[in-house]
C-alpha cells in the first residue's frame, strides 16, 4: 500500500482520500492488536492508553470515509463541509480530555465493557456521537445518489456502502443501548457478549466497506481483462485485412495506443473499413455460393454465419494481395451488431473461424471458381 505513494501524488483526489482512509484503518487495527497494545501501554506507562489513539484514528477514518463518499458522488462543495471538520476536531479534543479524566482499567480489560464511570460515559458518548453523525450522513448520501445512479458498478458500490453505513448505525445503537442500560444500573448482556457483538458488527461493517470501495476497481479490472481478450482475439483478423488495405489504418497517438478500449474501437472500425474496400472482389452470387457450400458441411446458426463471413474476408484479402482488379460494387461484408461491444464479440467468432478447416475449404472453392461466369454475370448485368 505504501509503495503507491509517489503515484498517488498525481492521482485523483478520490483515490488519495481512499488510500488515506485505508492507511488510517490499517494503523488503527495494527496498534489495536493485543500484543501490540501491551507494548505501547508499557512504553507509555499508562494502562489502556492504546484505546485513545485507536478511537481517535477511527474518527479520522470516519471523516476520510465521508470525504471519499462526497468525492465519489460529486458533492465536494457543501455548506456543511467546514462544520464536519470542526466537529471532528472537537470530538478528538473531547476524547482526550474525557480519557485522561477517567479511571482507566488495566490493559487486559476491553474498554467497551467499562461503563461505570461518568467520564467513561462521556468518552463513549463523544465517540459514538461523531460516528452516528458520520454514518447517518453517509446513509443519506448513498441513498440520495445511489438510487439515481445508472445500473452498474457505481450503483452497486453505493448500495454496499449504504449497507456498511447501516451496520455502522447498528453498532452505534448497540453501544448506546449498553451505555443507557449501564447508566440505569442494568446490564443487557455479559461483558464477553458485549465484546463479541461489537467485534462482529465492526468486522461486518469493515468487510462491506472494503467490498463497496473495491467494487468499482474490481469491475474495471474485469472489464479491462474482457477488453484485452477481445483485442487479442480480433487482432489476427485486423492484421490479415489491413495488410491488404494499409490505407485504412490511421496512426494513433502514443497515449491512445495504450488505451485498450480505444485499440478495440480502432480494430473494429478498421476491420469494417477494410472489409468494405475488399468487397469489390466478391459478388453477391459468391456470397450465396458460400452459404450453399457451408449448408452441406456446417450446422445452421451463428457458427455457420461466422464461417461464411470469415471465408469471404479471407478470400477477398488474398485476392487483393494477389493484385486482382476490383470487379464488383462495394458492399458491407461484416455484420453490424448495433454497438461496439457486440461488434467485437462477433468479430471474435469471425477471427476464430478464419483458422477453421471449413473456411479453408470454402476459400479453395471460391478460388477455383473465381473466373466462372456464374459469379461474374449477376453483377455485370446490374
Account of the protein in words:
By secondary structure, this protein is an all-alpha fold. The chain is 74% helix and 0% strand. It contains 15 helices and no strands. The chain has helices spanning 5-8, 13-31, 34-44, 51-73, 81-100, 118-146, 153-183, 191-244, 254-257, 260-278, 284-295, 302-321, 340-354, 357-368, 373-381. Helix 11 (284-295) crosses helix 12 (302-321) and helix 12 (302-321) packs across helix 14. It is rod-shaped and about 100 Å long. It starts with a helix and ends with a helix. Mean pLDDT is 81; it is low at 1-6 and 377-382.
List the helices and strands and how they pair.
Elements: H1 5-8, H2 13-31, H3 34-44, H4 51-73, H5 81-100, H6 118-146, H7 153-183, H8 191-244, H9 254-257, H10 260-278, H11 284-295, H12 302-321, H13 340-354, H14 357-368, H15 373-381
Let me know the largest β-sheet: none
Question: Any idea what the shape is?
Answer: rod-shaped
State Rg. 33 Å
Number of strands: 0
Strand content: under 5%
Low-confidence parts = 1-6, 377-382
Decide which structural class fits the backbone: mainly alpha
Report mean pLDDT, rounded to a whole number.
Answer: 81
Helix content percent band:
over 70%
Give me the strand/helix succession: HHHHHHHHHHHHHHH
Distance between the termini: 68 Å
Entry keywords:
382 residues, mainly alpha, 15 helices, disordered N terminus
Short description:
This protein has 382 residues and is mainly alpha-helical. It has 15 helices and no strands.
